Amino acid sequence: MSGEGQDIEVNGVDLSIIEIKKHGMTVSADGSPMTTVSVGENLRVGHVQIRVTSADGEKVKFDMR
Predict the structure, then answer these.
(1) Contact, 30 vs 46, CB < 8 A?
(2) In which region does residue 31 sit, left (phi positive, over 0), alpha (psi from -120 to 50) or beta (all else)?
(3) pTM of the entire structure?
(4) Residue 6 pLDDT
(5) How far apart are CA 57 and CA 19, in angstroms?
(6) CA 4 to chain centre
(7) In 3-state terms, what secondary structure has residue 59?
(8) pLDDT tens-digit profile of 9-41?
(9) CA 6 to centroid of chain Cα atoms
């Protein structure tokens, strides 16, 4: 994912990428409260689990279950 302030749909889940920093991202899933997930963390965001695998301030890679 490249660029913050975007809304995307992944597997039927609406994700809002609020902010991308070098240590992770702040994200919301299906209107959930904003959650900051750091690189290497695996956190519940709304009803999904998100693990950030890398971030550099402009781009972020993550897995979602």
Answers:
(1) yes
(2) left
(3) 0.88
(4) 85
(5) 9
(6) 10
(7) strand
(8) 999 999 999 999 999 999 999 999 999 999 999
(9) 10
CA atoms within 13 A on the CB side of 13: 18
* Token code pair at residue 38: 């750091």
Q: Quote the tokens at residue 48.
A: 């999904």
User: Strand 13-21 to strand 24-29: parallel, antiparallel, or no bridges (unpaired)?
Assistant: antiparallel
DSSP string, 1-58: -BSSSEEEEETTEEEEEEEEETTEEEEEETTPPPEEEEBT-EEEETTEEEEEEEE-SS
Lookup: tokens for 17: 């990428």
Could you tell me the two tokens for 39?
Answer: 């690189």
Residue 4 confidence (pLDDT): 73
